[in-house]
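Sanity check record (used in CI):
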Amino acid sequence: MKGFAKEKLYKFRNEFPELTDAQYETAMLLSIGINKKDIAIFRNVSYVVVRDTLQEIKNRMDFYSVNHIQSVFQCRLVTFGLTQCVLNEINRHNTNS
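Expected output for Transcriptional regulator:
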């Protein structure tokens, strides 16, 4: 995972207030396609910790699968991105007026 800026993961942290930082980081990495083994390496924890963290997320958010975690994260991130685009356009318009 060379070249991956870990601090960039936290740009969207406020979109997931129901999760702890460890849960957020694990779910975010999963949602961008990182497998559990590599998440463990990235987070410097064991595979078992990653597996258990994902189970905690499923329990906390009442999800039935890891795929559900991925889907919800991706949807919220797209919504966040679109909202930011609209807000930037409004600000640009107001600045030019």
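The domain at 18-96 is CATH 1.10.10.10 (Arc Repressor Mutant, subunit A). If this sentence no longer matches the regenerated tokens, the check is flagged for review.
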